[in-house]
Write a structure and sequence with these properties.
The protein has 294 residues and is of the alpha+beta class. It is 36% helix and 20% strand. It has a 7-stranded antiparallel beta sheet, covered by helices on one side.
Length: 294
Amino acid sequence: MTTETAAAVDEAVRARPASALRPYVGWYSGYRQRGLAPAVHRGLPSPYLTFILTLDEPLVIAAHPDPGQPPGRYPTLLGGLHTSPASITHEGAQSGVQIAVHPLAARALFGLPAGELAGIDVPAEDLLGRLGPGVHERLRAAGSWPERFAVLDGALLQAARPSGRVPPEVGWAWRALRRSGGALPVAELARETGWSARHLQQRFRRETGLTPKAAARVIRFDRARHLLAAGSPPPRLAELATRCGYFDQAHLAREFRALAGCAPSAWLAAEGPEAAKFRNVQGGEVGAVAEWGA
């Protein structure tokens, strides 16, 4: 999608990576905007790692999921899974590419388990060496979105290699939670892996950054907020709660406030498809640019 006038630029392009990368990366989201009013966006919990390479100006984080992290400006950013929102700002322009990285791919792409990134954001410069020399510069020099995505395909294919072993039990538990929409209880996951619930929790958190219970919350929430924003008109909250595995509407509302920092209706009004003031760095199917978090 591209809208451009003499005063404004508004581009959002989403693409699948090369087929060999799909076990590691869900999608690429490219975004470029100019001529906007300054705005603030919530970076929401998601079942993907956050990996952003900017194009023209740095990403400005006013508040991280971890309140102990100071605000910062990031030419590149890698963030772990989290259970509270970030706050992203811009002064009228933003541009970059976000790569939605599966958390169990962190070892293969970055050489460390996603648990080492749990709840924090770090500059990604120190990890870009695995992607080959000058990948950020080559991305910025590319003249079109297909060319930029091709640069990423080549760099990530070069980077992807075995680096430590993700326990197959953890991989199975993560995929089972994703398939179920976060509906499987921890006791069932443990029984299927043959591990105790405590051992599963420890190993799962080391590899993903979340416990199985916290991961289930994030997966349910991520599904609910996408369905909420994709509907036209939006679904009724009671129906959405039932569809996404919440006990009732009140449960959905409590979880939304905990994970997004606001009520569902407030988030939809501020950042849903009708709120065009900010092409949010997390929108996915909602018509925004990049999926914050993995």
